[in-house]
């Protein structure tokens, strides 16, 4: 559908003006770089208030149906808002899992009752969501999940644990993959998918301290926690198909997300500024031809990632392998950030030993913190190694061995 250029320009100006007037001031404490680093109540409440303000202004969930709490506006409007938020590095939308994974899943596969019960709370940030996929003993082998959901009368009883539960300490709900049939013909057939409340007896999210010194992840323990059958989404035993649909939203391979960004990443222009600031052999590092060569490659890579996002929207450019570009996005984007932050650490030299809070740290220790945090995106949503396997098997048609 073509967009009237004047309408687009007018809406863009409106959005810019609103953010000019409403962008939050520095809160006076360290904000997390992504939804995976929300470790304090102070950070959480600040981000929750900001998301509610964006939603109340009509700039979140713009393309979601009005009858469930969205605004029933064209998707291109939400895209403009999200791009502006990202460009300005405004605080991210804290309810990332709800906005980008659980919400689209419920809208696509949930019952009418589930849509009415959950969607608006996701948008307002009244109902924070977390994800129960990974387990301590099974890593990326999602199909081998062992947390049990056993039927007892008119309830399911949950026992086991999940790990790397981002926002687990603050969440009201969880999307959970659990094993309902121990005797199924194959491991995938025995799984079911649930939308479960977190604030009930028998569920205990225990925060995990990261190597950055921050919290945000949890290990969540389930000890005879009881949930109603209405928590099931899809069919009992059909959890694997629901999980795959969820991962398509998580990895950006399927659209329908509510909008807003989930992290504030560093750009190559900031690395260029760092290279002008730090010294190498008594001169600005950017004078070194090898440094300039690497910076030029990062500029090319960043532009390529941006163009891939635009390319994915044009069917004639992707019809030979329609899943290739969306599936590549998560892999290439997370690894690009890791490599770029690693290069920044090399530019810092000995100063990289200083961290946030050290008065001698360049840029307040931003680069060391960003480098350490960059690994989480290469693991969450499927590790880099798993993503390569998916591309090889599903896009290129390569054998498993």
Number of domains: 2
C-alpha end-to-end distance: 43 Å
Overall mean pLDDT stands at: 92
Q: What general outline do the C-alpha atoms trace?
A: globular
Q: What fold name stands as the CATH topology of the largest domain?
A: Butyryl-CoA Dehydrogenase, subunit A, domain 2
Low-confidence stretches: none
CATH superfamily of the largest domain: Butyryl-CoA Dehydrogenase, subunit A, domain 2
Biggest sheet overview: 4 strands, antiparallel
Judged by helices, strands and strand pairing, the structural class is alpha+beta
Find the count of extended strands (DSSP E, 2+ residues).
9
Q: What does the radius of gyration come to?
A: 22 Å
Number of helices: 12
Side by side, the strands of the main sheet go 2-3-7-6
Give a description of the structure.
With 401 residues, the chain is of the alpha+beta class. The protein folds into 2 domains: 1-263, Butyryl-CoA Dehydrogenase, subunit A, domain 2; 268-395, Butyryl-CoA Dehydrogenase, subunit A, domain 3 (Up-down Bundle), CATH 1.20.140.10. The protein contains 12 helices and 9 strands. The chain has helices at residues 5-22, 41-56, 75-88, 96-109, 112-124, 239-250, 268-277, 289-311, 315-318, 324-348, 366-379, 384-395, and strands at 129-132, 148-152, 155-163, 173-179, 191-197, 203-208, 217-227, 279-280, 283-284. The strands form 3 sheets. It has a 4-stranded antiparallel β-sheet with strand order 2-3-7-6, with no helix packed on it. The chain has a 3-stranded mixed β-sheet with strand order 1-4-5. A two-stranded antiparallel sheet has the order 8-9. Helix 4 runs antiparallel to helix 5. The model has no long low-confidence stretch (mean pLDDT 92).
